[in-house]
Amino acid sequence: MKFMTFLLVFVPLVTHGGEREYVEQYCTGIPKTLEDGTRVDCLTSHYAIEYDFAYKYHEALGQALHYSRMTNKLPGIVLIVEKTDDCKYVERIRLTINHFWLPVRVQTVGVSC
Known about the structure:
disordered N terminus, five-stranded mixed β-sheet, alpha/beta, 5 strands, 113 residues
């Protein structure tokens, strides 16, 4: 039971810390807290960029569109691909973006798809 409690508390912290490491490594802008309390992972002169793990592509898309509206910048997404199986999520987000003609730029880091 002690192990299970540790696992439930520890895993979310590791995942969140992992995203932050990618932002620190690849972002050429700055993180910014917006007037509504949400936080853009990386704000550049042209883009409001959301970094997220590939399996959370649907959350990343919604957040990027929201940050774009709030900052009047183009929406960008960096998907963190940890394993080749994650490439299916990259394909899903690209199909969704193309289907709705969304002006969202998507890049990946990690494993190549």
